[in-house]
Specification:
The chain has one domain: MITD, C-terminal phospholipase D-like domain (Endonuclease, Chain A, 2-Layer Sandwich). 24% of the residues lie in helices and 34% in strands. The chain contains two helices and eight strands. Strand 5, helix 1 and strand 6 form a beta-alpha-beta unit. The chain is globular.
Length: 110
């Protein structure tokens, strides 16, 4: 099961407070996903917002998908992993594994 982009409001105010690109249940595990097209479009605030929402929603996995090969902000990613682990949430980074996107949906889980 999955639901696409979703806004969350945690108070009775009209304005949403957080957004998730994808929520899914995969093999019995709840997965919260943030997806970016490139490392250049990823900001530190996107990572911290993913962590904050994951801590609030308590999925089994918080997944960050970047549709570009390469290394990202190592310190921010390690910090996110540690913060989430402290709450029993697994952090996964998903990037293309070097195959052309036209070849198929091959992804690499870090």
């Amino acid at each position: 099961m999955f639901v696409g982009p979703t806004w969350f409001g945690f108070t009775r105010e009209d304005d949403p407070e957080a957004e998730a690109d994808l929520l899914a249940v995969v093999d019995g595990k709840a997965v919260l996903c943030e997806v970016k097209s490139s490392w250049r479009s990823l900001r530190s605030s996107h990572i911290s917002e993913l962590v904050a929402l994951a801590i609030r929603l308590r999925p089994d996995v918080a997944l960050l998908g970047i549709m570009e090969v390469g290394a990202g902000p190592t310190n921010d990613l390690q910090s996110a992993k540690a913060q989430l682990a402290a709450h029993g949430i697994e952090f996964r980074l998903v990037i293309p594994d070097g195959h052309s996107l036209e070849d198929g949906p091959y992804l690499h889980l870090d």
